[in-house]
Design goal:
three-stranded antiparallel β-sheet; 2 helices; about 30% helix; binds zinc ion
Length: about 110
């Protein structure tokens, strides 16, 4: 489980932004997590309180936006990779390129 390391990195990034912009209080963090990013939202939720409790961000709420993993098949069909297990629903090919869902971003920080 590498999610704790990821969340700690996110917290460090936010601390840096705080210093740069002279912010004092944060209300909410919005993360954008792609289904094909290798990051498991459920684990993020688990480790999140641990990662923030020692920091001044301990009251920060967490919101996650999940981006579906989509791929384009060699036949041109665009489909949800998770739903169809990476097998094209149109031609049954397993060859695809990922078009979305690899994202892992800090989408928004609500601060003042
Ligand atoms: Zn296909």
């Amino acid at each position: 489980m590498h999610e704790l390391g990821i969340v700690i990195q996110v917290v460090e990034t936010i601390e840096k932004i705080f210093k740069e912009q002279n912010l004092t209080k944060v209300d909410k963090l919005v993360l954008e997590i792609g289904e094909a990013s290798g990051v498991v939202p459920h684990y993020i939720e688990d480790v999140y309180p641990i990662a923030i409790e020692q920091s001044f961000l301990k009251d920060m709420k967490l919101e996650m936006i999940i981006i579906p993993a989509e791929g384009v098949c060699e036949c041109g069909e665009i489909y949800n990779l998770m739903k169809y297990n990476g097998i094209c629903p149109k031609c049954s090919s397993k060859k695809f390129s990922v078009t979305s869902g690899r994202e892992f971003n800090i989408k928004e920080i609500v601060a003042y």
